[in-house]
Amino acid sequence: QVQLVESGGGLVQPGGSLRLSCAASGFTFSVFDMNWYRQTPGKERELVASISSVGSVTNYADSVKGRFTISRDNAMNTVYLQIHSLKPEDAGVYYCNARHVSLLHVEYWGQGTQVTVSS
Fold it and tell me: N or C: which end of the chain has fewer CB within 10 A?
């Protein structure tokens, strides 16, 4: 059974930090690119960070460059999103996504973890 389980969300003050984790199971993690998306009410789900299957290539949305770092541990089947200098506009539900490196129609989603930024 395929599972992506996010954790690490919560309430953080502006300027604070968080590390989100996404634990994968039920599929061959090392042949999937991994992505973090963010969704806020009234907006479309936004891709904020991506990492290639072996971790050699990362990409970020302009709005998070320099503050977010995506990483993965293929031995642990886990992808991370380190967030620094949180802003109120970073708040939302963060979803983990796995997309096969060549079979692009094969993808999985986690259930999401809520990040709230407030003083």
Answer: N
